[in-house]
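Allophanate hydrolase subunit 1
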Amino acid sequence: MAGADSHGRGTSPQLRLETVGMDSLIIRLFDRIEESNMAWVLAADSALREAFGAALVDLVPSYTTLLLHYDVAALEEGEARARIQAALADLAPGSGQQGQLHEVPVWYDDSVGPELAPIAARLGISVEALIERHGAHDYCVFALGFAPGFAFMGVLEEALTTPRLKTPRQKIAPGSVGIADRQAAIYPSRSPGGWNILGRTPITLFGRNEAGEPSSRFMPGDRVRFVSVSREEFVRLGGDVTPLEERA
């Protein structure tokens, strides 16, 4: 699986397996976080689900790995490892491993995005230029975690790299759009957080699907495009204009 792949998507994975529990294995494909990883990770996800069938308890894709939880009543670890090796022996990313593209409306404003002006000042650019650059890239969803529906996205333009806040806020409003290091995220619910908040979206990120099951708007492999909207459009879409600090 090593070397450059035939699809022109960078370096192909080098498979390593790590035991993390009596019924769980981490499948490590890469060492570096790259957007091109996700086509491989999603291809591995599909192949492993087919290979394990009813013996699969859970499978969680992430930046460079997949966490596989299998039924120990059906498989011993050696058998699980053999299935993984066989399933991924001829792994190749397919054109169908792109995920969905989501356009996310964002109201960028100091009242709901308190780090907007300070980051622009630090970079020596206008707030308008920062907004334009933040929305100029389609962000890959690498993983879900921290809170239901919270998607870790990247990779942020290197020049916009910004460390997390030294002192996290106690309460972040739902829909807050933030950046930290070279990642972007949206807070799906009211929670503490240390990301730099640039604005707010009116969309709901987590709820229940038609079958009544918990459902996240974003899934690993999806892409997110932030689209700047006016205050009026934000309100029309159902957005809450209460300033962030007033919600704290």
